[in-house]
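thread: overnight batch results

M.L. [08:02]
morning all. the overnight job finished for the chain we discussed friday. pasting input first so we're all looking at the same thing
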Amino acid sequence: MAISANLERLNYDSADGCIATGQHIEVIQSQGATRTLLPEESGALCVFDRAAGIVFTLPAPVEGMQFDFVVKTSITSNAAKIITNAATVFLTGAVMIGSLTVAESGDVFAGDGTTHVAVSMDGATKGGLKGGRLRFTALSATSWYVEGIAVGAGTLADPFATS
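M.L. [08:03]
and the structure it wrote out:
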């Protein structure tokens, strides 16, 4: 993908680099049970801060878009879910889930890139407890790459889902 000529370049011609002062990212707090993210919100930090869960729907992917998600409040019902905008947009990458119980180990779960369209954390075995962080990066018009660490409890299970 070519970089748009409409983007502002900071010190593009300088071999010394540049300084971008006052840089902040947008933080999206919960605003109910569902939230559809907008393309112009790429780069935002989305917060799961509702015990009853939130479903974030990603926008149509454009290569290079990125969204971060953190679990601020443990999920106690429903799910902390991130889903693609269409049944033909898939997830690849991996999520490591660590258990809060010392006697239990962690595990790694991977998106298959062909059927998985969501990460759904249940507040227990599939993650969704306070402290998790996931990043979604658009690789193409049909693919998001997922990476991160989730916090769960019990016998850990795959958070990647087909719906």
